[in-house]
Amino acid sequence: MVLIKEKHESAKRQLLSDSTTYDLLRCVDGLLAMFVFTPLIVFFWRGAWHLCNLYIYPDNLELTCWVSVMIGYTGALTLNLTQFLLTKYIRSHNAIAFSILSRIYTILFAFTSVNHWRGVWLTLDYYTGFSFFSAGMSVLLCMLLLWFLRSSSSVLASPFLIAMDRTEGYFLAPTFFKSQPSNAGKFLLDITFSVLVISTLAFSVWRGIWELEDLAIFPEDSFSSALVSCIIGIALATAMTLLQFKVATVSAKLDSHPYAKLLLEQTWLFAQIVGAVSLWRGYWMLCNRYFMPEDHRYELGQWVSYAIGTGGCMILFIGNTNVMRGVGRDGFQSDGEGIALSNHYTSILYQFLQNIHYQPAISDPESTTKNGKATFCDENEASISGSYTVINQSEDGAVAT
What's the CA dihedral at 246, 250, 251, 257 to 10 degrees? Predict the structure, then answer.
């Protein structure tokens, strides 16, 4: 999912406004993200993950780990390195061709993302074990590194980051150093660092929080454990949806105090990360328990789960949210934009209906990497979820993760 930041002064004012209509639409965005979009995304990820369990050397745990690692890193590096070529040659002038090719790209990259994530996760399980110590160190060390690198927003995913499928910047993913392909060596190193380091740290944080909840929340009762995770996720998502404008106002006042603003933003982001992992885990476990759980229908159930997730997200134009790509940066936005949740949907549709036009920050591939925080829209989906200046909060190119 890449997030493309679009800067409009009027949008900045709207971000911090208390307009009743806008507040209502943002609440609707939050409800859709929690109860429609995230379940569909979990359906996709759960189905794809379990299909990998079934088809990629199911009887050899070490080998299946490393095959997913190879698929994930190779695919992510290749698709990130070719993002500007894809943008150049797959154009929107032919709507039908673009729709077909872009959706094939999304399906391919989403498969890569699942293997990337699965490979990192299972490899850590295989070599470090399933324990409080392993999971706790996975969270602690990786979050410390991400905070130091100011990239904790790279860990975000639904319901806090939703990437809408838009033609502008569809294939673009923000990188850590925001380098351009005109400098081939630097661009290659930037992509390599973004994929091998930042993405790996992000996936490791998810693994650690998820497994801490596995171990701490009713480990012998899957239903109660799933229910508590759902409650945690929904409570955090609801609270942050309602509080984002007040916290954004505080953040805006801290623009002249960058370290205080960074501390506020990273604390806010960590709460989003915990909420996203908890909600995903809760939905995932409920699916395992109630969605075609019978052994004789297990394989069919995973294919149905995959199809519902993929089809549902594409029908709703949020397919890019299934992709985990790109790098987010913390503390580089102003006027409270780093606080706004990147899950705009009805608020954007409403603006289109009101003839409020969006001007993409990237009219050509060369201008994609400017300013602040790239988002993680699923690889950072380069789509639309971002910083809400009139459209996104994520900047150059999730959500997001």
Answer: 180
